Structure formats: C-alpha cells, structure tokens
TrEMBL record:
PANTHER family: GLUTATHIONE S-TRANSFERASE, GST, SUPERFAMILY, GST DOMAIN CONTAINING, GLUTATHIONE TRANSFERASE. One of its GO terms (molecular function) is glutathione transferase activity. It comes from Cucurbita maxima (Pumpkin). It is found in: Cytoplasm, Cytosol. InterPro entries: Glutathione-S-Trfase_C-like, Glutathione-S-Trfase_C_sf, Glutathione_S-Trfase, Glutathione_S-Trfase_N, GST_C_Tau, Omega/Tau-like, Thioredoxin-like_sf. Residues 86-217 form the GST C-terminal domain. Its main location: cytoplasm. SUPFAM superfamilies: GST C-terminal domain-like, Thioredoxin-like. Belongs to the GST superfamily. Tau family. Keywords: Cytoplasm, Transferase. This is Glutathione S-transferase. Residues 2-81 form the GST N-terminal domain. It comes from the Eukaryota. Its EC number is 2.5.1.18.
C-alpha cells in the first residue's frame, strides 16, 4: 500500500506512543517533525478536522487520533500483536485504554494550575493514579498485559516517561510517593524495555521544553 510517514512532534506523548508501536513491530517509517506553533499545510491537509498530531500517513491515506492509529497499526501489521487474542482480555485492555483517555483532561490540569487549584489538580491526578495502581496493575505481570508490552502499556507510556519530567518542572511528587509501588515498578520496566528505551525523548530536553511551554501558557492574555 505504500510508505509510512508519521507527522508528529518529538515532545508529544501522543506522537511517541505511535513511534513505540511502529518500532516494536519493526515497521519502517519516516518521521515528519511538525511545528505546533505554525501548523504545516500538509498537517492541515491530512487532519483538517482536529488539526492535531499525530497523523499516520500510509500510502497517502491519513489516519488520525493516536488510539485509532494504534488499532490501525495492529490490524495492518499483525506481527507482535498489541492486543490480547481472548475477547475478554481484549475488552479489559480497551477498558483501561479508555479509562486513561477519559482522564486525560483531569491529569492535564496540573500543568497550568496555580495556588489552591494546583493542590486540587494534584489530588485529582493522584486519585486517577491510585485507581491504576490498585485496579489496573493488579494482575501481577511486569506490564499491563503480562510479560510483553501491549497497547495499554503504550497508551500509559507517558506516565512512565513524562511524569518524571512533570515532577521536576512542577517541583512536586506524583508517582514517586510510597503509595505507588506497582506503578513505579511498571514505569521502570517500561522505560528500560528493549526498543522503548532507545525511543524516549531526552529527559533534560523535555524539562526545558515543558518549562518554556508552561511559562507561555501562564502568560496573562494581551
Ligand atoms: N486525542 C489526540 C490528542 C493529540 C494532541 O493533543 N496533540 C497535540 C500535541 S501533543 C496537538 O496536536 N496540539 C495542537 C493543537 O491542539 O492545536 C490523540 O490522541 O491523538
């Protein structure tokens, strides 16, 4: 069907989960770095509805939304499956993917919250993490799906990588506290897993990037 291109951004968790899926499956692709401050005509052409990255372009056909891209990749290149075969296990995997996607706005609030609002945003994020700790990672395996990384791990991967960055930028503890031993063990397994460890943006570069981004977002409107 033709070549594969990924329009994304090195610092985006959504973009990186697609990178991880392509790399895990060994699919050759070209990465097209998009500038989020000045969207390219090509990005607007491929994703005229949401105007967001990531967009996977397979033989000139665009696929948008990271979770849908992951499903597309898994169906198109079935080697090293990212979802369990068993329908019940598959449904459970999709449940946890939907869970964190629905909580994204709640978790995102902490990035720009200030004062009392910051404490409330932290409390709401910790509640989400507690649910994942107690219910999502209760299966005893190294990863969500057992011994191999699956689509749930890729979707939660930002927690393993970006949380550490956020903790530094916001100067607060999130998953580093004593109440998250499973999440910490999972995050360490994820960050150090073959393939993933070679495709994680540099920590210090991300700290600088997110500091700058936060300052921009906190600027009072003109
Ligand atoms: N739900 C989307 C979210 C993607 C998203 O928020 N992308 C951001 C970059 S991290 C973006 O393109 N932002 C540009 C904008 O909102 O205008 C997905 O999972 O693909």
């Amino acid at each position: 069907m033709g070549g594969v291109k990924l329009h994304g951004s090195w610092a985006s968790p959504f973009s990186n989960r697609v990178v991880w899926a392509l790399e895990l499956k060994g699919i050759p692709y070209e990465f097209v770095q998009e500038d989020m401050t000045k969207k390219s005509p090509l990005l607007l052409h491929y994703n005229p509805v949401c105007k967001k990255i990531p967009v996977l372009v397979h033989g000139e056909k665009p696929i948008c939304e990271s979770s849908i891209i992951l499903e597309y990749i898994d169906e198109t290149w079935p080697q090293k499956p990212l979802l369990p075969i068993d329908p019940l296990d598959r449904a459970t995997a999709r449940f946890w993917i939907k869970f964190i996607e629905d909580k994204e706005a709640t978790m995102r609030r902490i990035f720009v919250a200030r004062g009392e609002d910051k404490e409330e945003a932290r409390r709401a994020s910790l509640e989400v993490l507690r649910t994942v700790e107690e219910r999502g990672l209760g299966g005893g395996g190294k990863f969500f799906g057992g011994d191999a990384i699956n689509m749930v791990d890729l979707t939660y991967g930002w927690i393993a990588v970006w949380m550490k960055v956020l903790e530094e930028v916001l100067d607060m503890k999130l998953i580093e506290g004593p109440e998250f031993p499973r999440l910490q063990a999972w995050a360490e397994s994820f960050r150090t897993a073959a393939v993933i460890r070679d495709h994680i943006p540099d920590h210090q570069k991300m700290v600088l990037h997110l500091r700058r981004r936060r300052e921009e977002l906190l600027l009072p409107p003109n």
